[in-house]
What does this fold into?
Amino acid sequence: MPGLILSAPASGSGKTTVTLGLLRALARQGRLVRGAKSGPDYIDPRFHEAACGAPCPNLDAWAMTPDRLAQLAAGPGMLLIEGAMGLFDGAPPEGRGATADLARHLSLPVILVIDAARMAQSVAAIVAGFAAHDPDVTVAGVILNRVGSARHERMLRAALAPLGLPVLGALPRDSGLAHPSRHLGLVQAGERPDLAAFLDRAADAVERHVDIDALLALASPLPKVPPARPVPPPAQRLAIASDAAFAFAYPHQLADWRAGGAEITPFSPLNDDPVPAADLVILPGGYPELYAGRLAANARFLTSLRQAATTAQVYGECGGYMVLGEALTDADGHVHRMAGLLRLETSFAERRLHLGYRTLTASDGPFPGRHAAHEFHYATTLRADGSPLFDATDAEGTPLAPMGLLQGRVSGSFAHLIEPRR
It folds into this structure.
């Protein structure tokens, strides 16, 4: 079970496109290949799965133990891990949780994807600096991206030659490989009708311009898999919203809960599905603000959700939390009535970024105890009345204001839970 990590000096270097092209190319060639994503990301993994047909786990070196990372990384065939941000970028103050941490924990080499569009000989200084920065992180090769011409490629290769690192490929600029984006990242894979054509175009570019066999030869074995310790489910019967508005659920959590004997029933609020019978109803995060009018009009869903709250626990994360509130104001300033199960009003009319890892502690609700979590949203809280759900600290352990609300059987917050803190 060999593996490689694809990282970059900074976000926006094109590592997602390169990773997707490699996954698609290898899958088309009939090779067994899987993708994984570093850090808390709900969107890129679904592109990985579409590219190669294999499940894509999140590997979060801030939230997960080395044993947990090894367990989630295990599987058949080649594993290509896509990094997040720059190689050494992580949580403050020392960068914990960076892609470099994955390289250390899993003892895997790194292929550096360089956006060469606006540089020539300076590429050597960048690559040399990254290769020498940490002796425990091995930069094994380079892929040049957004190269302007054959002459440009020759200049870049000549500058890199004295470093002795293999240049595994040079991908030309191609506006057809740009991703449409949204405020939390890429537009979701399921929303792109041209997804198959896009993935094939990326694979075609990789096959023409990257030495795939040389790249695979640099892979290293994954670490031995320790005994699994799955997280027990929060309830026996779980009803989990799942559609374009509520797509942000971590597969590793669902797999743990199934392994613990939980019965998981998905349903679609966007389709006005009634909430299935359950002990715990979960509304994950996603993009409810894009569908707020439709959700507000789906009386069967909302009525059944309110009814479910009389007999079962109901929990919402981020977007799901907003839908449990009384009102959601969209980006155009239109106010939409939501479920009214929490005394909460939120708005996208004035966007403000909330971003960072969190450690949360709850004494009540469906997820008691300490949890590693993350927060990433642009919504503004206009009103939140009631008992908070979580005590919170940031990645540095600095206390934050309590997060979320707990009202009877209903609870939620803007945070996304990743792992219990054991």
